[in-house]
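look at this one:
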Amino acid sequence: MKYMVFDVESIGPFGKGFAVGFVVLDKNFKEYASDFYACHPSLVASDKEAEFEWIFKKYPKYTFAIPRDIRTAFWNAWSSFRAAGAYLFADCSFPIETNFLIQCIQDDISREMESPHPLYDVASIRMSVGFDPLRPESRLPNEYPPNDPVKNARQSARLLVQALEIINKAI
């Protein structure tokens, strides 16, 4: 079993994603892959652009010209890791990550049957072992800065592993 944990940055909770990052863990919970895809946030900001100027300064690195290309790159990565036995996880996946996945499928309806179902939620797994999934958690050095989708995914992966280890000990 492999674990692909992803995080999306968007303009508002129901906006389109302008950046996505992920990490992939092997069955021993060791990270062996990660990636980041982004376009300029103004491409998804619409009339709220002035409100989110801080985001434009925070994301100077863009790997793609348009949001659809980000979704395609992510879908291709997901498909590859899925074929290698990965399951997909997100932390507090609604609404941002679930909307992103829906947009991936809307871009190409043939993806519907490959959609990640179930989409595993790190917050729910953590809650099942007694953690408060909404309590802010400290970050390790490789999980900074916040709001970097790869760093967020890395932190979520660590929190997932923490919960899974508790579950494995109980079994």
